[in-house]
Amino acid sequence: MTAYILKRLLIGIATLVVASVVVFSMLEIVPGDPARLMLGINATDDALQALRQQMGLDQPLVWRYLEWASGLLTLDFGRSYTYSVPVIDLIAERIVVSLPLAVIALVMSTAIAIPVGVFSASRRGRPADTISMGATQFGVAVPNFWFALLLIYIFAVWLRLVPAGGFPGWSAGVWPALTALILPAVALALPQAAILARVTRSSLLEVLGEDYIRTARAKGIPYRHVLWRHALRNALIPVVTILGLQFAFLLAGTIIIENVFYLPGLGRLVFQAITQRDLIVVEGVVMLLVAAVIVVNLLVDLSYALVDPRLRANR
Known about the structure:
The chain is mostly helical and 315 residues long. The chain has 2 domains: 2-72, no CATH class; 94-313, MetI-like (MetI-like fold, Orthogonal Bundle). The protein has 15 helices and no strands. Keywords: Cell membrane, Membrane, Transmembrane, Transmembrane helix, Transport.
């Protein structure tokens, strides 16, 4: 098990290095001059040159990458061109919105998807199965920003139960902050729940056809116990894999939702940084999200041994 963990860590580190090169290179070739964007079209050449020197844009590309990559090791993501503050401060300020939003959405999608998947698998071929899978197909096909607009109209405009957008901050209290995150979390969770429910159903149907399930039923064990205690646990490996991928997607895929609900999270920060060509902010946030994906995938791989004890002997 230790050798497996070390191998995964080395793969993760190599992935981070390659990702840093790709992210830095792709953003550097984007057309546009951050200095001219900050000073405006009427800026003089001397002012532009002075600002480029101040921001380090006059340095060779390789040197700038090495300086930036070495700073990542100490969580020094550089200094924002636009806000003139350390990028890590901007990330720390915004992640307290994006991370709870992603966690709430993940909990919601799991709480919806697994019962729906189990319910549908246990009634395979019946009208209830057709209806539930039809609903999940609708959830997969419809984008989350459409759900967001629909939820705003129903619960914020029509019923006026929750705010339509904005975030009061955690200093205003836990309940007002959570209330502001409910609709965005639901908009993020519903499409992911549809995908996870279909995966749960497919995996569970495959397990229900195994010989040991038929043996358990032949011994007189109630079908409910066979379904939840035996079949579901052995069907969880694909489900856990999708859960890990979904968390990474939810954390990185909040750009549209945070802009729809006007939430001051990482997604909105990236969107603003792109429009202002604040490349150092974009690079820092993207690398943070890449690291989050790698860590989540490592945790998912380790959780396989907890879900299926047979895998421990093979590692």
